[in-house]
Amino acid sequence: MMAQAPRDRVTEEKTQRRRRMDGTLDQSMDMKLAVPPQIEAEFGASHRLRWFNDVGPRLYNATERDDWDKVSGVEPRPVGTDEHGKPIYAHLLMKPREFDAEDQARKDVMRREVENAALNGAPTDPQGRDRSEASKLFATDGNRISNSYSP
After folding, report:
1. Distance from first CA to last CA of the chain, Å, rounded?
2. How is the chain split among helix, strand and coil, in percent rounded to 5?
Protein backbone atom coordinates (compact mmCIF):
# COMPACT_ATOMS: atom_id res chain seq x y z
CA MET A 1 0.00 0.00 0.00
CA MET A 2 1.28 3.40 -0.97
CA ALA A 3 1.54 6.07 1.75
CA GLN A 4 0.18 9.53 1.05
CA ALA A 5 2.76 12.27 0.81
CA PRO A 6 2.37 14.87 3.55
CA ARG A 7 0.89 18.15 2.33
CA ASP A 8 3.02 21.21 2.71
CA ARG A 9 1.83 24.23 4.65
CA VAL A 10 1.15 26.41 1.56
CA THR A 11 -1.18 23.78 0.07
CA GLU A 12 -2.91 23.36 3.41
CA GLU A 13 -3.46 27.12 3.82
CA LYS A 14 -4.79 27.48 0.26
CA THR A 15 -7.21 24.63 0.90
CA GLN A 16 -8.41 26.25 4.13
CA ARG A 17 -8.67 29.69 2.53
CA ARG A 18 -10.62 28.28 -0.41
CA ARG A 19 -13.09 26.62 1.93
CA ARG A 20 -13.71 29.89 3.75
CA MET A 21 -14.10 31.92 0.56
CA ASP A 22 -16.70 29.76 -1.18
CA GLY A 23 -19.84 31.66 -2.08
CA THR A 24 -20.76 34.82 -3.89
CA LEU A 25 -18.94 38.11 -3.63
CA ASP A 26 -22.09 39.76 -2.35
CA GLN A 27 -22.81 37.52 0.60
CA SER A 28 -25.67 39.71 1.78
CA MET A 29 -27.80 37.90 -0.80
CA ASP A 30 -27.14 34.66 1.08
CA MET A 31 -28.53 36.23 4.25
CA LYS A 32 -31.94 37.20 2.84
CA LEU A 33 -34.87 35.03 3.81
CA ALA A 34 -36.54 33.30 0.90
CA VAL A 35 -40.28 33.25 0.40
CA PRO A 36 -41.57 29.66 0.37
CA PRO A 37 -42.23 28.62 -3.27
CA GLN A 38 -45.84 27.57 -2.61
CA ILE A 39 -46.59 31.00 -1.07
CA GLU A 40 -44.84 32.76 -3.97
CA ALA A 41 -46.90 30.75 -6.44
CA GLU A 42 -50.17 31.48 -4.62
CA PHE A 43 -49.72 35.17 -3.77
CA GLY A 44 -46.71 36.41 -5.75
CA ALA A 45 -48.66 37.75 -8.73
CA SER A 46 -51.23 39.69 -6.71
CA HIS A 47 -49.29 40.68 -3.57
CA ARG A 48 -45.90 42.03 -2.57
CA LEU A 49 -44.32 39.62 -0.10
CA ARG A 50 -41.82 40.86 2.47
CA TRP A 51 -40.27 39.72 5.73
CA PHE A 52 -40.64 42.10 8.70
CA ASN A 53 -38.59 41.81 11.89
CA ASP A 54 -40.55 42.11 15.14
CA VAL A 55 -38.37 44.94 16.46
CA GLY A 56 -40.13 47.82 18.17
CA PRO A 57 -43.47 48.82 16.65
CA ARG A 58 -42.60 47.67 13.09
CA LEU A 59 -45.00 44.73 12.99
CA TYR A 60 -47.82 46.70 14.62
CA ASN A 61 -47.34 49.66 12.26
CA ALA A 62 -47.29 47.42 9.20
CA THR A 63 -50.35 45.35 10.10
CA GLU A 64 -52.52 47.89 11.92
CA ARG A 65 -51.53 51.25 10.43
CA ASP A 66 -50.72 50.06 6.90
CA ASP A 67 -52.10 47.47 4.46
CA TRP A 68 -49.78 44.56 5.28
CA ASP A 69 -51.32 41.25 6.39
CA LYS A 70 -49.63 38.22 7.90
CA VAL A 71 -49.34 35.26 5.56
CA SER A 72 -51.10 32.35 7.21
CA GLY A 73 -49.33 29.03 7.32
CA VAL A 74 -45.81 30.54 7.45
CA GLU A 75 -44.11 30.32 10.81
CA PRO A 76 -41.97 33.26 11.99
CA ARG A 77 -38.24 32.64 11.54
CA PRO A 78 -35.58 33.52 14.12
CA VAL A 79 -33.15 36.08 12.68
CA GLY A 80 -31.16 37.23 15.71
CA THR A 81 -31.36 38.50 19.26
CA ASP A 82 -31.99 41.94 20.71
CA GLU A 83 -29.83 43.74 23.29
CA HIS A 84 -31.58 41.83 26.10
CA GLY A 85 -30.90 38.42 24.54
CA LYS A 86 -34.50 37.85 23.48
CA PRO A 87 -34.96 36.33 20.02
CA ILE A 88 -35.97 38.50 17.06
CA TYR A 89 -38.33 36.82 14.61
CA ALA A 90 -39.08 37.70 11.00
CA HIS A 91 -42.74 37.45 9.94
CA LEU A 92 -43.81 37.09 6.32
CA LEU A 93 -46.34 39.77 5.38
CA MET A 94 -48.17 40.52 2.15
CA LYS A 95 -49.68 43.67 0.66
CA PRO A 96 -51.84 43.95 -2.47
CA ARG A 97 -49.67 45.11 -5.39
CA GLU A 98 -52.03 47.97 -6.31
CA PHE A 99 -51.76 49.41 -2.76
CA ASP A 100 -48.00 48.99 -2.85
CA ALA A 101 -47.78 50.74 -6.24
CA GLU A 102 -49.78 53.70 -4.86
CA ASP A 103 -47.51 53.93 -1.81
CA GLN A 104 -44.35 53.76 -3.93
CA ALA A 105 -45.70 56.43 -6.31
CA ARG A 106 -46.37 58.71 -3.31
CA LYS A 107 -42.81 58.18 -2.05
CA ASP A 108 -41.46 58.83 -5.55
CA VAL A 109 -43.29 62.18 -5.75
CA MET A 110 -41.74 63.28 -2.44
CA ARG A 111 -38.28 62.12 -3.54
CA ARG A 112 -38.56 63.99 -6.85
CA GLU A 113 -39.62 67.18 -5.01
CA VAL A 114 -36.50 67.00 -2.84
CA GLU A 115 -34.33 66.33 -5.91
CA ASN A 116 -35.85 69.25 -7.83
CA ALA A 117 -35.40 71.56 -4.85
CA ALA A 118 -31.75 70.51 -4.60
CA LEU A 119 -31.25 71.04 -8.34
CA ASN A 120 -32.76 74.53 -8.10
CA GLY A 121 -30.65 75.47 -5.10
CA ALA A 122 -33.56 75.54 -2.66
CA PRO A 123 -33.00 74.43 0.94
CA THR A 124 -33.51 70.76 1.60
CA ASP A 125 -32.58 70.67 5.26
CA PRO A 126 -34.91 70.97 8.26
CA GLN A 127 -33.38 74.30 9.32
CA GLY A 128 -34.76 75.98 6.18
CA ARG A 129 -31.48 77.63 5.22
CA ASP A 130 -31.74 79.62 2.00
CA ARG A 131 -29.24 80.60 -0.68
CA SER A 132 -28.12 83.66 1.30
CA GLU A 133 -26.39 81.28 3.72
CA ALA A 134 -24.63 79.36 0.96
CA SER A 135 -21.24 80.77 1.96
CA LYS A 136 -21.57 78.99 5.33
CA LEU A 137 -22.05 75.59 3.71
CA PHE A 138 -19.19 73.16 3.23
CA ALA A 139 -19.87 72.07 -0.36
CA THR A 140 -18.00 74.03 -3.01
CA ASP A 141 -19.45 75.22 -6.31
CA GLY A 142 -17.97 72.18 -8.03
CA ASN A 143 -20.18 69.85 -5.99
CA ARG A 144 -23.53 69.94 -7.71
CA ILE A 145 -26.32 67.61 -8.57
CA SER A 146 -26.67 67.57 -12.32
CA ASN A 147 -29.59 66.79 -14.55
CA SER A 148 -27.61 64.04 -16.29
CA TYR A 149 -29.20 61.22 -14.26
CA SER A 150 -32.85 60.39 -14.68
CA PRO A 151 -34.33 57.07 -13.53
Report:
1. 68
2. 40, 15, 45
